[in-house]
Design goal:
The protein contains five helices and five strands; from the N terminus they run βααβαβαββα. It has 142 residues and is of the alpha/beta class. The chain has one domain: Rossmann fold, CATH 3.40.50.9100. A five-stranded parallel beta sheet has the order 2-1-3-4-5, covered by helices on one side. α4 links the parallel β3 and β4. The N and C termini lie close together (12 Å). The protein binds 1,3,4-trihydroxy-5-OXO-cyclohexanecarboxylic acid. The site of 1,3,4-trihydroxy-5-OXO-cyclohexanecarboxylic acid has 10 residues, from loops.
Length: 142
């Protein structure tokens, strides 16, 4: 059975209370419950990670590669726009990664329009809320 990891970066532990007009009122737990049910239906193993720390996310890519995880659904949050280290970790891991953003990063501030990580990901889904994670999971499961 394939294993897919869902990685949420900084401040996404605050979903539900963080800027609900941008990110909605559902929590990270709600998201993980939804994806667990979808993974079951797709016949894949799923694991969840969240960190506010860049180095932890970098370490995680190495660990997941060593574990043989086949795919990652990544919302790198603010590190998307700042982190060469995260980009290099994705690249070095050799894992298929789909980048997801809850909000539409192209309809917001100019600094969100650039992603360091997108070029080393299989694709990017932005602005579709939690549905983006579901589409990414489906992509990686098949
Ligand atoms: C985000 C968009 C990023 O620009 C922002 O820094 C986040 C969340 C999103 O899911 O819409 O923290 O990745």
């Amino acid at each position: 059975m394939k294993t897919i990891a869902v990685i949420n970066g900084p401040n996404l532990n605050r979903l539900g209370t963080r800027e609900p007009e941008v990110y909605g009122s559902a929590t990270l737990k709600d998201l993980e419950e939804r994806l667990s049910a979808e993974a079951k239906a797709l016949g894949v193993e799923i694991q969840f990670h969240q960190s506010n720390h860049e180095g932890t996310l970098v370490d995680l890519f190495g660990q997941l590669a060593d574990e043989g995880v086949e795919g990652v659904v990544l919302n790198g949050a603010a590190y998307t726009h700042t982190s060469v280290a995260l980009r290099d970790a994705i690249s070095a891991s050799g894992i298929r990664v789909v980048e997801v953003h809850i909000s539409n990063i192209y309809s917001r501030e100019a600094f969100r329009k650039h992603s360091y990580t997108a070029p080393v990901c299989e694709g990017v889904i932005t602005g579709l809320g939690f549905n983006g994670y579901s589409y990414a999971l489906k992509q990686l499961a098949t």
